[in-house]
Amino acid sequence: MATIVDVAKSAGVSKSTVSRFISGKGYVAKDVQKKIEKAIEELAYVPNEVARSLTQKKSKLIGLLLPDISNPYFPMLAKGVEEYFYEVGYQVILGNVKSNNEIEESYIESFSMQNVAGIITANSENENSKLKTFNNPVVMTDRAYKESEYGVVSDDFMGGKLSAQEILKTHPKKILVVKGPKGLNSLEERFNGMVQVLEGKIAFDVYQSHSFDFGEVEQDAKIIFEQFKETDSMICPSDIHAIALLHEALKRNFSVPEDIQIIGYDDIPMSKFLYPALSTIRQPAYKIGMEAAKLLHALIDKRPVTEKKIMLPVTYIERETTRRK
Amino acid sequence: MATIVDVAKSAGVSKSTVSRFISGKGYVAKDVQKKIEKAIEELAYVPNEVARSLTQKKSKLIGLLLPDISNPYFPMLAKGVEEYFYEVGYQVILGNVKSNNEIEESYIESFSMQNVAGIITANSENENSKLKTFNNPVVMTDRAYKESEYGVVSDDFMGGKLSAQEILKTHPKKILVVKGPKGLNSLEERFNGMVQVLEGKIAFDVYQSHSFDFGEVEQDAKIIFEQFKETDSMICPSDIHAIALLHEALKRNFSVPEDIQIIGYDDIPMSKFLYPALSTIRQPAYKIGMEAAKLLHALIDKRPVTEKKIMLPVTYIERETTRRK
Asked: Where does the secretion signal sit in this chain (chains A, B) (predicted)?
């Protein structure tokens, strides 16, 4: 690959002239500019990003921390982040944190060493997180939002309310609210929204799930069908939970939605392909990623930011796992 | 964040002594070493990776090119790559190429500018790809393999054969082979394997699909059910195709597998949660990512590589969308 020295030789000028031309700092005569441009084009010269990063203490890299990339919700969010930053000339380093604080710390340290220009995290909040001492801007999204200065999420409280309201309209006999893993702010909000709608209106059971992992959620589904035999309506904290419950219901020869109705959360790409197709609350994962990237980009460029925290609306997607009203 | 100057001050030594200590080049007295170590720990000093990258022309970064991160197969592969490199102190830059040559080129250019130590690509082969002129090692996987020097895939030809063999055992009346998008080597191999088993034994139709996109594959499924009314057995190039066909079959009130049987390819995490659960050929996506990372790491470290091309076995996962033999 061509170096700055090759460009200088080919253009018949000194290395420092080429350097002045590239950095845009200092005078370079018009005709010399043309010679250098021609040499750059002919040699397909790419100025070294690493050298730029070293002098400016800020690279063209973004760090993205995700709790679990095998959960189909997060690739959509990552896609939004990646597509925005691609357009503005940044690359995204992927950090799959697996909800492990040690891995998170280690990634933040690596990001510092790479002079990463900013971080977007969807990882859950962590009291002692090194993010708090990270020098460049940080935007929180999804599971991390409450304590942050800058963030983009969807309206989890409203989403929780919405799913409970939709179930209430269908004259449920006995409701089970499946609560997602503890300590995640977004899930607490959803649960609070659900409870606010249901309380005082109808009795309901609560089951505490501890995972988003397919295998573990499959076990939850088995326990739920053994334990809550009266339930005819299930409100879920994610589509993964809803899909596992739907599978278990059909395996046990229940009709869905006649015997058991199920409402999910997220609207992952697969949900509409289930049979019956899943009724769910749609979070705009791609848009959340895109907006978080846009906000982070403004912070990196030190442009004025009017909305430090952005909350995007959620919508109810009625499909076939809920009864008609 | 602490700098090398802070460390030097705190340890009461010169900056160049700290620098010698960190690089391991040159003599530093034992008691001075201890002082520096203590200062580094107290100040939580992180040596700048960018400076290291500049002198060595090789960063601790890996480039990963994927065709589409919203296809659930690829996050599993990415997870394998990321988890391997996390353990050995590298970070992975995500390039979601969207099967677009221009985006691929642009990413490869950016990777060069970042002094990326190596690239793993699952993107389809591209005659004029800039990968061929990339200075550091490249490992191809999944869709890109045939033309490459180093690669990790699963045995697509055997997978194709396996899916056709399993369908043949169930006494199919009329088979439809759904062929995946053209120009992807892995899909050609699968198709060739299927055809080799079926030809001369039974008549079969072929439908050419042009996408892995959920929306477009949904359209394919509608066309297929209109066009191939005799078909009772469908062999698919991916689980996405199989899921769309399963959904369409159930919507049209066919019994699966009694009226229509369907076999997928990949075994994405969702497949076992469908109802009926999907019979499919399992590709070890996570392991492919892991092995590709291991191979690339050996190349980066210039360790001897005995197997330049690794082909991992596939397995048939019998679930509920195929008839019992």
From this structure: none
